[in-house]
Amino acid sequence: MWQMLSPTALLLLVSAGTRAEDHPKAKVTLDPQWNRVLKDDEVVLRCQGSYSSEDHFTQWFHNGTVIENQSSSYSIAAARVEDSGVYQCKTALSPLSDPVQLEVHTDWLLLQASRWVYEEGDPIVLRCHSWKNKHVHKVQYFKDGRGRKFSYQNSEFHIPKARQEDSGSYFCRALIGPSRNESSKAMNVIVKGPTIPPDSPLFPSWIQVTFCLVMGLLFAVDTGLYVSVQRDLRNSMRDQKNVKVTWSRGS
Ligand SMILES: *[C@@H]1O[C@H](CO)[C@@H](O)[C@H](O)[C@H]1NC(C)=O
Ligand SMILES: *[C@@H]1O[C@H](CO)[C@@H](O)[C@H](O)[C@H]1NC(C)=O
Ligand SMILES: *[C@@H]1O[C@H](CO)[C@@H](O)[C@H](O)[C@H]1NC(C)=O
């Protein structure tokens, strides 16, 4: 039984051990916050992580490949389409961050959002961004083809508290310069309802594994007990017979 258990038990011990001494993952943030930008926009990627006294370098990855710069922020002065892709960073003490996606588009107008997936109650911020911040006017935001907001000067479209009905396909339209009538590509905004995911584990998986092991162990012990009790019972019944036999013989 121990031999059967040991690899799993070892695994549990090992994962518990590493978890205790882990630093949290490094984190990439974008400044400004938009993950979709236009060609020639300026973007600064910052890496949040822990450094050790000897090692204060940051390692950056673009599309999984190491890039040269080793400072905690990586600045792109004028974005090119090739700067698109996923960015990750790590520091001496913080393991590799989750990937952050940057999209560089070549369009006149671009719809930007603080995020594309929201929880109910979150503030939604949409922005109609023009190439090289060229002057725009008569700016309109559309949801599912219907006008939702109009302003003579460019302004962001704010929804203070997102509701599920705010989910949909959004784009913006504006006049650039005196009369260039342009539309952005449409983007989906998703507002998730209050969720009690039925399939999400109530307990961390290691508790479940332990639970299964303990149940298995109990079952094995139980079966063993049952077998031995039965054997004892049979033995004692045979003994009783023997006793009877002896008795009848004796009388
Ligand atoms: C990378 O680092 C060098 C100097 O270390 C700097 O001149 C260059 O602008 C940096 N590039 C980016 C994209 O941050
Ligand atoms: C990174 O990947 C993106 C998307 O797949 C691509 O558009 C971009 O050109 C790639 N850039 C580099 C430098 O690999
Ligand atoms: C821009 O063009 C659309 C049709 O493509 C038109 O409905 C709209 O009124 C135009 N906007 C302005 C401000 O002229």
From TrEMBL:
Compartment(s) of residence: Cell membrane
Span of domain Ig-like: 24-103, 120-188
SMART domains: IG (SM00409), IGc2 (SM00408)
Gene3D superfamilies found in the cross-reference section: Immunoglobulins (2.60.40.10)
Biological processes, Gene Ontology terms: antibody-dependent cellular cytotoxicity; cell surface receptor signaling pathway; dendritic cell antigen processing and presentation; Fc receptor-mediated immune complex endocytosis; granzyme-mediated programmed cell death signaling pathway; neutrophil activation; positive regulation of bone resorption; protein import
One Pfam family hit: Ig_2
Chief location: membrane
Any one annotated GO CC term: external side of plasma membrane
Keyword Metal-binding attributed: no
Transmembrane region(s): 206-229
Signal peptide segment: 1-20
Record-given protein name: Low affinity immunoglobulin gamma Fc region receptor III-A
Originating organism: Equus caballus (Horse)
Gene name, Swiss-Prot/TrEMBL: LOC100051526
